[in-house]
Amino acid sequence: MNLRMELPGLLYGFYERQLQRSLDGGRIPKHIGVMVDGNRRWARQFNAPTSQGHQAGADKIHEFLGWCQELGVKVVTLYMLSTDNMNRSGEELDLLMGIIANTLDRLDDDADISVHAMGAPELLPDYLAERLNKLTARTPAREKLHVNVAVGYGGRREIVDAVRELLHDAVDRGADIETLADELTVDDISRFLYTRGQPDPDLVIRTSGEQRLSGFLMWQSAYSEFYFCEALWPAFRKVDFLRALRDYAGRQRRFGT
Question: Which residues constitute the domain of residue 104?
Answer without folding.
Answer: 28-154+200-247
